[in-house]
Amino acid sequence: MTSRLRLPDAIVLALAGLRARRLRTALSALGIAVAVAAVVSVLGIAQSAKADLITQLGEDGNLLTVASAQSVNGRQVPLPVTAQPMIERIPPVRSVTAVGTIENIPVRRSAAIPAVQTGGMNVLAAQPSLPETVSAHVLQGHYLDATADHYPVTVLGYEAAKILGVGSLDASTQVLIGDHYFTVVGVLAPVAIAPEVDVAALISFPQATQWFGRGNEPSRIYLRADPDQVAAVASVLTATTVPDGQDDVQVRRPSDLLVARIAAKSAFVGLFLGLGGIALLIAGVGIANIMVISVLERRGEIGLRRALGARRRHVAAQFLLESTLMAAAGGVLGIGLGIAATAVAARLGGNPVAIPPQGLAAGIGAALVIGALAGVYPAARAARLSPVEALRAL
Amino acid sequence: MTAAALELSAVRKVYEHPTTVVALDDINLVVRVGEAVAITGASGAGKSTLLSILGTLEQPTSGSVRIAGIDTSALPDTKLSAVRAGSLGFVFQQFFLLEHLTVLDNVATGLLYRGLPARVRRERAAKALFDVGLAGRIGHRAGQLSGGERQRVAIARAVVGRPAVLLADEPTGSLDSATGAEITELLYAQANEHTTVVVITHNTAVAATMNREVRLHDGRIVSDTAASGASGSETGSGQRVTGTGRGSAALGEETR
Predict the structure, then answer these.
(1) Which of A6, A13, A309 sits opposite B81 (nearest CB)?
(2) Residue B236 above 50 pLDDT?
(3) Are the beta carbons of B94 and A300 separated by less than 8 Å?
(4) pTM for the whole thing?
(5) Mind listing the domains of chain B with CATH numbers?
(6) Structural domain boundaries in chain A
(7) Is B86 close to A309, i.e. CB distance below 8 A?
(8) At what angle do helices B118-131 and B147-159 cross, to 10 degrees?
(9) Cis peptide before B18 (omega within 30 of 0)
């Protein structure tokens, strides 16, 4: 005959022990819950923000830009007019759009504002294919359509609209571009991979020619390539844009910027996760503390169980399970709180809610590990207690 | 039928801390199966130490202990736990009930470390509670019971596994005399041809109920009614045992 304790019995035993001390169990578990909630919400909020950036990044960062290099005097030399049709002929290129800067033209709300107060905004001549290529969304109104070629209308970038104080387009709104009033027909949402669009007032190329005498030469070309051909396309862009090799052009991949931003956010995540880890550690110490007290208080019970035939390891298992289950309960609660916090934060930040499953697993796992570690010393202490000594207590 | 349930030879127990104390010295004791033995003596005479050694809760410094034929003085802790789970039942002065559990679960805890399914443990516990007259208290919390009822629950817990040896340490020490007498009868009723009962007491009334009294003084046995009644101590105790079996049965009927 041997002395045995079945696992289901041990779990029931531990649960009964926890139920008998509800308040201290709840408070200790709450410590773990707060720490796990912190970890889960840090991961969740970071993931939500990242998901937002990745959405903006579009199809795996396959956006490329071609811009003319600046000449020695700082003025931009426009790209050749042939550049856009040439680039369109590169087979893996899916869509192309060109913008032309119109330099030294201020954008103002009215003539009462001095022309030098540009607010950092610029005027861009743009094509109808711009929103599709740079994944820009229209926040209000509509984008430049066919009529925009013939009438003085403009679409404002997100920041430009804010600077100009253009809130609602319900009433007819006009802004002063150079010396001409343009009607605002739309406002774009932020475009993360083309921040220059955010601070621009977009008008059509024909209008740019009509009012500002600008030619059709683009100053910058955006293009989307097949995701797996991006590098190949990038390598031929210079030669395609300026076949004679006389001018210099800059080929860029704006998603690199976003990748850097994601990396920067990840650095903060590491910091906050570290703080969450410290919170978990403190909560673990709290559990260890309460378990040591529990062992002292329950010497009689320990002695009784030993008299009833419990082995040392049965007693140890009981206390170890108690601390682990306590922490697990805290972990589950913490995950719930963490998800709620993430949802609230994502809603406030206008991001999609994205909770990494590995974050949830890490939260529960960390809680279990901390709970088990916290129980080791109290459990060993309970197991070491000699039965006679334990029964003498009271 | 008269095999030895408990056999101590030349048992000596010395405590080194805090000071060297000889708690038991040269204890030779044979308790036959079915005997009901009272261990008496003044405080500090070594009664509790003797019970702890009989219950394998403590190991002697020297000498040998055999419980139901097994030499326990050389066993590791896991084997001792198995002996306690399978062959021994304990009743304590302080009851040691688990306050947060129901009466039924307290008694079922007596079978917990046998590895039986929970359903079987509960069934047997319910029967044991019926036997001690607490069938109506099954669902109560231990904290709701009176002292006498608590000790009945403790006895049910000790006997639910049908142990070969039932050990009780001052079982009536926390009870008034009337309740104590009931508890003593209940304990005594357990002594039959299969169960050996050893009770520590300084209550002479309790001791008188048992059919053998072993008196300790300063760690030594100073008198043993089994040895004094017959020429050969072992055969003598054997004869008494057969008498006891009948006596306890009669007593049991009286109480009903």
Answers:
(1) A309
(2) no
(3) yes
(4) 0.71
(5) 4-255 (3.40.50.300)
(6) 7-56+259-392, 63-252
(7) yes
(8) 130
(9) yes
B230: tokens are 């017959």
- The two three-digit tokens of residue A206, written as one number: 């024909």
pLDDT band at A62 (very low <50, low <70, confident <90, very high): confident
Query: Per the CB < 8 Å rule, is B82 touching A12?
Result: no
Q: Is B101 on the interface with A (CB under 8 A)?
A: yes
Contact state of B113 with A305 under an 8 Å Cβ cutoff: yes
pLDDT in tens, B123-157: 999 999 999 999 999 999 998 999 899 999 999 99
Q: Crossing angle of helices A312-349/A255-297, nearest 10°? A: 140
Are residues B10 and B195 in contact, defined by beta-carbon separation less than 8 angstroms? no
Q: ipTM value of the model?
A: 0.87
Q: Does A304 touch chain B if contact means CB atoms closer than 8 Å?
A: yes
| Interface touch A301/B118, C-beta < 8 Å | no
With contacts defined as CB-CB under 8 Å, which chain A residues touch B82?
A: 1-3, 309
**B100 neighbourhood in chain A, CB within 8 Å:** 16-17, 19-20
Q: How many angstroms separate the CA atoms of A182 and A189, rounded? A: 20
Question: B182-187 long-range contacts, Cβ below 8 Å, gap at least 24?
Answer: B182/B148, B182/B255, B183/B148, B183/B151, B183/B152, B183/B155, B184/B209, B185/B209, B185/B251, B185/B252, B185/B255, B186/B132, B186/B152, B186/B155, B186/B255, B187/B91, B187/B155
Residue B227 confidence (pLDDT): 64
Bridge partner list, A93: A225
- In angstroms, the Cα distances linking A123 to A104, A108, A194, A212 are 9, 11, 14, 11
Contact criterion met (CB below 8 Å) for A189 and A137:
yes
Q: Decide if pLDDT at A49 tops 60.
A: yes
pLDDT for B13 beyond 90: yes
- Residue A310 and residue B81: Cβ atoms within 8 Å? yes
pLDDT range class, residue A394, cuts 50, 70, 90: low
Q: Chain B contact for A387, CB < 8 A?
A: yes
Of A233 and B37, which is predicted with more confidence?
B37
Q: Residue B188: pLDDT band by 50, 70, 90 thresholds?
A: confident
